[in-house]
Design brief:
heterodimer; A: Cytochrome-c3 Hydrogenase, chain B; 4-stranded mixed β-sheet; 15 strands; about 15% strand; B: alpha/beta; 6 helices
């Protein structure tokens, strides 16, 4: 199952690295994330570790507030990003992590003394401080210590608002001529504070809030949260509801992957392909609207089932249209993949190895494109995936071309899954009599699903109230962004949009990254007034 | 302000609308629906509308998402860079009022907290049809019926 109650393995804070490396030796080689908890006098840390073949372990330690925990970067290279997140959200420091003291998600002007996820932090008070007149939050790129690259290197800021980005993000590119020596992302431009808001809403309203983390994998956020809450309640959705959930999840995967394919065309300057792919994709948008009533935020999942049934006539139309889509899509992908220009523009661009992918804890198609069949739908089947016949599509060399192949293959697999669901929809009533408005017994549970971009993880803790005590979300882009920064090294500046698009980033989802190291060195942040003073008069 | 006022603001010259799109911490939902409006099925290009990479070339600023502490200053700067006359469209419920994120610690609220907004297009997200209609009406296609007919023509058999 992709969800379960949490059985903690306890550890003392100072033993954390040893306990983690012991678990790693037992096969738990994938660090999903680190969850922070406000436990009153102390901060709880839960390290969620997964085996590639299935099974999750949860290692827990309590650290006194204001104390320090040892960093896990010696055991898991990718851990530092999750430690920075806990540092941002709870103010806890990790000794041995070189990035402490730098913000990951929060703006630099965020008040030091009020970490947002502590229980006594009032969002209204923080807002007043953040939006007080005169506060300047816009920051310059963290660049200093350039000389360690080469005497000729310069830093090129890229973003946050750049014609080549659809979403705000900032990359500092250290370049020598056209070659990129290093890429330093700074994220947080889409940070809204969803995890805090989720603690203040009821379980039912949280589904709608969490769906709005991301407009592309929207349904997977609602689904993953619901699966975790259902575990806490000891509830199982009717079989027909599980099938409808799977149907919408697979339609969402098709729509997300085709959108990505269109964007690849757009960033390589092949606008015809963009228009063509997006036109074909409208068939899927129609099906999503037909099934759920909405095009983007599907809002079909609810605790204990789905919000509306998909009757026989609708199912028949889904089956009919998806076959038409398959024909169109096969022709489209056949044409695109046989174009010499396309092959040359994508082969060898942004290449990475299986070792890179594993060491940086990547997930989803990015990991499968180097031949690692890590797919939660197979590893821990949830919803109706256990009953469906599908194969995990893998590639053999990690680059933009093999990612196009993998995602196109996944679209075809999803189409077959949709056909199977249409043919074998079980009978029954999938809609619960009343929406869930009750109290959830104290406890904690997790769920993970395979969102279009990869493994999505939700942790939910209940204290026996109408609203959750803590909701933690680890989105696939956060796990993958490191790889994009890694793959940018050695590429040329003209390939930047293509390489960043390669991982199918969703910055709304992630909204939680800064990598980087660039020495410290105090830098001055220029205010808008400074710019006005300095700008050239024309 | 209404759509008609915005149309008057742009003056009698029936110009093509050049659009600059700004994501102020949106969830991507409005952004992909806006992208869909650009493509062949909805095709806002038939009203002369096109996406431009610089605010200095734009007549219309389309903002998606609620404004947060990091995007607030950028949004104001981008608005200041646009030449007059300019029209601002708040696309989606978050851009209109803060939506589901209103009250979050890092969210200031709707776009009108920072810059003046001419047209509000609510919806979570608004369908591309609504985006097409807003643009068509600024452009001077006054009757709703005309917009709908064109739209249906573009949607194929359904």
């Amino acid at each position: 199952m992709g969800a379960g109650k949490i059985e903690r393995i306890e550890a003392e804070p100072r033993e954390l690295p040893a306990a983690l490396s012991r678990l790693r030796g037992e096969g738990y080689s994938h660090l999903i994330t680190i969850t922070g908890l406000d436990e009153g006098d102390s901060i709880g840390l839960i390290y969620h570790l997964a085996r590639p073949g299935g099974g999750v372990a949860h290692l827990h330690a309590s650290v006194a507030k204001g104390g320090e925990a040892p960093s896990a970067i010696g055991v898991f290279r990718g851990a530092y990003i999750y430690e920075m997140e806990v540092h941002d959200m709870f103010g806890l420091r990790f000794s041995g992590n070189p990035h402490m003291g730098r913000r990951l998600l929060l703006p630099d002007c965020y008040p030091e003394d009020e970490p947002p996820l502590l229980k006594d932090t009032d969002p209204g008070r923080v807002r007043e401080k953040l939006f007080a007149p005169g506060t300047v939050c816009l920051q310059g790129p963290p660049v200093s210590g350039l000389s360690r690259y080469s005497p000729e290197s310069i830093a090129v800021p890229f973003g946050p608002y750049h014609p080549a980005f659809k979403e705000p993000e900032h990359f500092t590119l250290i370049v020598e001529g056209e070659r990129i020596l290093d890429a330093i992302p700074r994220i947080g431009f889409v940070h809204r504070g969803v995890e805090k808001a989720a603690e203040q809403r009821s379980y039912l309203r949280d589904i709608f809030l969490l769906e709005r983390i991301c407009g592309i994998c929207s349904m997977h956020h609602g689904l993953t949260f619901t699966l975790a809450v259902e575990k806490l309640l000891g509830l199982e959705a009717p079989e027909r509801a599980e099938y409808i959930r799977t149907l919408v999840a697979e339609l969402e995967r098709i729509h997300s992957h085709t959108l990505w394919l269109g964007l690849v065309g757009y960033w390589m300057g092949f606008e015809t392909m963009f228009m063509w792919v997006l036109t074909v994709r409208e068939t899927i948008m129609d099906l999503i609207e037909l099934v759920s009533g909405n095009r983007v935020h599907k809002s079909i999942v609810t605790i204990g089932g789905v919000r509306r049934d998909v009757e026989g006539e609708k199912l028949r139309r889904v089956g009919e249209k998806i076959r038409g889509f398959e024909k169109e899509f096969s022709r489209l992908i056949g044409d695109i993949l046989s174009l010499d220009e396309f092959i040359e523009r994508t082969s060898g661009i942004g290449s990475y190895t299986a070792e890179d992918a594993r060491a940086l804890s990547t997930v989803g198609p990015v990991r499968r494109a180097v031949g690692d069949p890590y797919d939660i739908r197979k590893v821990e089947p949830y919803c109706a995936y256990g009953d469906l016949d599908f194969k995990v599509v893998t590639g053999d060399r990690g680059d933009v071309y093999s990612l196009v192949q993998v995602r196109a293959g996944e679209v075809l697999e999803s189409i077959h899954m949709v056909e199977q669901i249409v043919d074998h929809m079980p009978p029954g009533n999938p809609v619960p009599k009343r929406p869930f408005m009750g109290v959830v017994k104290p406890g904690e549970a997790y769920a993970r699903t395979e969102a279009p971009r990869g493994e999505l993880f939700h942790y939910v803790r209940s204290a026996g109230k109408h609203s959750p005590d803590r909701v933690k979300v680890r989105t696939p882009t956060l796990a993958n962004i490191m790889l994009a920064a890694h793959a940018l090294r050695g590429q040329t500046v003209s390939d930047v949009p293509l390489v960043i698009t390669m991982i199918d980033p969703c910055f709304s989802c992630m909204d939680r990254v800064l990598v980087a190291d660039a020495g410290s060195g105090r830098r001055r942040i220029l205010t808008e007034a400074d710019f006005h003073r300095m700008r050239r008069r024309w | 302000m209404t759509v008609e006022k915005a149309a008057r603001k742009l003056g009698p010259a029936r110009r093509s609308l050049w659009i600059y799109h700004f994501n102020a911490s949106g969830c991507n939902g409005c952004d992909i629906e806006f992208a869909a409006a650009l493509t062949s099925r909805y095709d806002i290009e038939r009203f002369g509308a096109k996406l431009v990479p610089s605010p200095r070339h734009a007549d219309v600023l389309v903002v998606t998402g609620a404004v947060n502490s990091l995007t607030r200053d950028s949004l104001r700067m981008i608005y200041d860079q646009m030449p007059e006359p300019k029209v601002v469209i708040a696309l989606g419920t978050c851009a209109c009022s803060g939506g589901v994120f209103d009250g979050c610690y890092n969210v200031a609220g709707g776009v009108d907290k920072v810059i003046p907004v001419d047209i509000y297009v609510p919806g979570c997200p608004p369908k591309p049809d609504a985006i097409v209609e807003a643009l068509a009406r600024i452009r001077g296609v006054k009757e709703r019926k005309a917009v709908c007919e064109v739209k249906r023509g573009g949607r194929g058999k359904d």
